[in-house]
Structures are given as C-alpha cells and as structure tokens.
Design a protein that fits this description.
This protein is an alpha+beta fold. Helix content is 23%, strand content 32%. It contains seven helices and 13 strands. It has helices spanning 9-18, 20-29, 90-95, 154-161, 187-196, 203-209, 258-268; strands at residues 39-41, 47-48, 56-59, 64-73, 82-84, 103-105, 114-127, 138-149, 168-181, 211-225, 236-237, 240-241, 244-246. The strands form three sheets. Strands 3, 4, 5, 6, 7, 8, 9, 10 and 11 form a nine-stranded mixed β-sheet that branches. Strand 3 (56-59) and strand 4 form a beta hairpin. Helix 2 runs parallel beside helix 7 (258-268). The longest helix has 11 residues, at 258-268. It is elongated and about 65 Å long. It starts with 8 loop residues before the first helix and ends with a helix.
C-alpha cells in the first residue's frame, strides 16, 4: 500500500484509522498477486527436506512429475502488509471441491499458462523449520499437490525437475480482513493486533512497521510458480530449500490522499 510521504508512527496510525474503510474496500476490490521481493540468503547452507514426508516423484519417460508445493504460508507478514490467518481458504477450497483452482505460472490466467494438474489443495500444519524459519512450533500453510506435465510447459517442467522452482504465489481476493495497529489508543485495531501477533513467524517486522492487515477469509483463484513471491515461504517440498529474508527497500511513497484512494477504488470496481 502507498501512504502519504513521510508518515510514520502515530501520524501514520491516525491516517490508517481515519481511512480504514476506504483502504479495506480497496484491498477487497482487487486480485492479489505476487510482488517483486529481493531476498538475502541466510548464512545457513541449503538443507534437504525429507522427500518421504511429501508427495515427490519423477516419471521422466512419461514427462510427469509429482510435487508438493507450499502455495502460501500463514502467520507471516508479507510485502502487501498482510498476515493470512489459519484456514484462510477453507471455504474456497470446499466450494471448489469438484473443480480445483489451476496450477499456472506467473499468474497468467489462460489455457496455455498451465504447468500442472492439481491433485489436491489443502491447509495443513507445518513446522516453521520446514519452511526455513529457525523458530519452534508450527504454522499452517496452503498445500498444493500437483502433477506437473512436460507437455504443458517444457521449461517450467525442466525447472521443477532440476529443483529450481522454490517460490510460489496465489491469486486471491479478500473476503474478510481487518486492520491491526500496535497502539492501545486504537482499541479495535489493537485487539486485532493482540489476538494475532503472538502467532507471527516474523514479529520483528510487525513491530518495526507497527501495523498490518489481518486476513481471515479469502477466495482462492489460482496458484502460480513465480520467480519471487510476496510471501517467500513458498517452496517446493522435498528438495533443497534455501531460505531467505525479505530485504526489499520500497521506493519513496507517492503522496496519496483519501480522495485519491476512493477514486482508485471506484476505478477498480
């Protein structure tokens, strides 16, 4: 999101509170895709996640790979200022039970952008350490088991075969979200902060920023293989995974007042 230039701390919180409805309406009005995010690799060497724990097989003669993909990880503050809550896509997955959301590349929503045929979509608990985060406990992630086919896209097939696809992203639309602010003067927003903060895998980013949007329900549209996602904890499981930390520096924000926010919202809708 873009806020007026120079706003931070209490001034930023006042702006967010005053424009809360317009900001949330605008976020609901658009389809969320991946952002460009720069990653810095940690000093720990890449580690191999056990293939036996997840669907992972190669049938090269027939040009078919089966992979377990993390399409999204919850309880992680991403570059859209969002924290996805557990069971985020539960209703969406259930509603699409007989017609699963597609596995694409780069959020290109058309027939020739398919790279795999989904076997299943599910939300499951996973240790943070399996995602490259060195903290105890578990979070929940969105799992995609997919049959990746050479005939659909030869290059992406080769990349999965070689273990080069370690970032994924979902196309989604918000249904239920709220604003969290780390300031007791904003009682409603502070309650959201208190009820969600302790589950975060990257709490230091939230503390530095002071706010985020807690997303409790969203529509799942598709899952894509991407170069870099807005949520970097989206590997292909069963292969070497080199975790990273977001280090992107945003360009200086362009001033945007509430009337411009509302105009942008109505243009999008």
């Amino acid at each position: 999101m873009i806020w007026p230039e120079g706003l931070k701390g209490s001034e930023l919180f006042r702006y967010l509170k005053a424009n809360k409805s317009a900001i949330i309406d605008m976020k609901k009005s658009v389809i969320k895709h991946a952002d460009a995010v720069l990653l810095s690799v940690t000093e720990e060497p890449p580690r191999s996640i056990s293939k036996s724990a997840y669907l992972f097989s190669n049938d090269e003669p027939n040009g078919v790979l089966k992979r377990t993909i993390i399409a999204n990880t919850y309880n992680w503050l991403d570059s859209h200022d969002d924290v996805h809550q557990n069971n985020l896509f539960a209703k969406s997955i259930k509603d699409k039970a007989n017609k699963m959301q597609p596995h694409l590349h780069d959020h290109i929503f058309q027939m020739d952008a398919k790279v795999g045929i989904p076997i299943s979509w599910s939300e499951k608990a996973i240790p943070w350490t399996d995602l490259g985060v060195n903290i105890a406990g578990q979070t929940m992630s969105l799992f995609l088991e997919s049959q990746i086919m050479k005939e659909l896209n030869k290059q992406v097939y080769k990349d999965y075969l070689a273990g080069r696809v370690d970032q994924h992203s979902v196309g989604m639309q918000y249904v239920k979200l709220d604003m969290a602010i780390n300031d007791a003067d904003y009682s409603d927003e502070y309650k959201i902060w208190q009820s969600t903060f302790d589950k975060l895998g990257n709490p230091e980013k939230a503390i530095e920023q002071g706010y985020y949007f807690s997303v409790s329900e969203a529509k799942l549209i598709e899952g894509s293989a991407v170069l870099l996602g807005s949520n970097e904890l989206t590997p292909t499981l069963g292969q070497k995974f080199e975790p990273g930390k977001p280090t992107h520096k945003e360009q200086p924000p362009k001033a945007l007042n509430i009337s411009e926010l509302v105009k942008s919202y109505y243009k999008l809708t």
